Amino acid sequence: MEQEKNAVLMVNLGTPEAPTPQAVKRYLAEFLSDRRVVDTPRLLWWPLLHGVILPFRSPRVAKLYNSVWMEEGSPLMVYCKRQQAALAAALPDTRVELAMSYGRPTLPSAIERLLAAGVTNLTILPLYPQYSSSTSAAIWDAVARILTGYRRLPAIRFIRDYAEHPAYIAALKQSIEASFARLGRPDRLVISFHGIPQRYAREGDDYPQRCEDTRRALVAALDFPPERVMMTFQSRFGRDPWLMPFTDHSLRDLPAQGVKHVQVICPGFSSDCLETLEEINVQNREIFTHAGGETFHYIPALNDNPSQIALFRQLVSEPKDK
Description:
The protein is α/β, with parallel strands linked by helices. It folds into 2 domains: 6-162 and 307-317, 3-Layer(aba) Sandwich (Rossmann fold), CATH 3.40.50.1400; 166-299, Rossmann fold (3-Layer(aba) Sandwich). It has helices at 21-31, 42-68, 75-90, 107-116, 136-147, 166-183, 198-202, 207-221, 247-253, 274-290, 306-317; strands spanning 6-14, 94-102, 121-126, 155-158, 188-194, 229-234, 261-265, 295-299. The strands form 2 sheets. The protein has a 4-stranded parallel β-sheet with strand order 2-1-3-4, with helices on both faces. The mean pLDDT is 96. Catalyzes the ferrous insertion into protoporphyrin IX.
């Protein structure tokens, strides 16, 4: 009888390899070429992407990456590697690999290593708490394409999301309460999620509902007035209508409503990255304070916090039929 070999493949979005225009351009070209991310007909999208967006956007985004770059590298990659190492230590009998949907380490290389090692049971863990067709489903598509080249496949378990998993909500609650204890209770707790085009939701993507599920479970867990919690969406791109309300517009308008102290958490990001460290903690901080706000605090992502590693361990260890 063949001995079972278990493995976990953690997958996140990806990041440029360096905070340079050339590296950012390579990364954005791969990311924005995925039809799950941008489904505009290629005949229209390709000239716009390669003729306008990449040449003009890459230098600007590279400067933003440079402002948050850590000594060890891109924040997202640094925290993902720490998560991988911590989960591997927590699961000594399970091989833990890390891959990115775009950029390195690549999904094909990670899967090749796992299959070469004779893995028989593979759990794929997208590092997105809330499912979206533009993130989790893109991983599903990529894995399916890669596996078409192999004759022998392992048993595969795909963790769709964990938007209201008790361990996830408990970890967020712990993080928020620690922030409140240190800085006081804010006038508003802003829960900011990455946005998607409204059209994706109309066509069946249940991402907005999964964000709402997280918000609802978190509000129920917190000892904090529900009316002082607001859910917003950030990081819109392009001309299509995106999910609302927008985080930046909301933070701009709050001081006029008497809100002087806000704390912002971004539960859709399992690791801090450009969208949290620069967009939220720099750009949106400036928007709030310029509008008259006095105290702004960004509550960091769970990153390699032990509570998140315990969550990951629970997710990949739960019965397959749960």
